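In this supplementary section we document a worked example of the pipeline. Step one takes a protein sequence of length 256 as its only input; no multiple sequence alignment statistics are reported here. Step two produces a three-dimensional model, which step three serialises into structure tokens for compact storage. The input and output of this example are shown verbatim.
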Amino acid sequence: MNEAIVEVVDLHKSFGELEVLKGIDMSVRRGEVVCIIGPSGSGKSTLLRCVNFLEEPNAGRIVVNGFEVTDPDVDIDRARRGIGMVFQAFNLFGHLSVLENLTIAQRKVLKRDRAEADAVARKNLEKVGLAEKAGAMPAQLSGGQQQRAAIARALSMDPAVMLFDEPTSALDPELVGDVLSVMRQLAEEGMTMLVVTHEMQFAREVADKVLFMDDGGIVEEGPPAQVIGEPRQQRTKGFLARVLNPTHVPVTGAET
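The serialised model returned by step three reads:
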């Protein structure tokens, strides 16, 4: 549990004149669940996309599972094999069945034969409660089922760390619980997880550490009982007052 599997040092990212990440330092230890909270536009999703090198940082150093992804000489495809990513949109291939969605990368990237890939896929579909949907097309699934299939697809690549970018933000409220239940189960099984979320109750119950981001920086970090329960920074207090007070509209929407 003491080994850092994700290390981010002095990370900067700009889009044109807009500086989105302003010197981020953070780490995630093996088996740890870290939730990142904060208002839309604070840089949370950009941080996650930099960790997976879907966005190239302007400066800084990122090491994931022993690979320095910011090294110009890194084999980024090999480095990404140890990183599972679940997006706001489900990103399933609409022309492939659920089972085929889970096996295509296994066969192309991990070079598994069809029988092994199918077995791994079916095991993970069972884990997320979709064993009976293997032959279905994505359009035949609810949003929550599609997101659970996306989680199973990521798990089928045997990742060392899972990144979740607002995995419930596109779901109807009644479907959110099923996805969070799967994520809770993964946490209980010891999966290392870095989660961008507005689900405060999930962060309270499941996270080992919570980071509050605002304006491109980490304002406050610590155990959920401290950051969410007894925040020290005024910006954290203001954000939580808006999100936790039911008379206010929760902060949701597209991230930078």
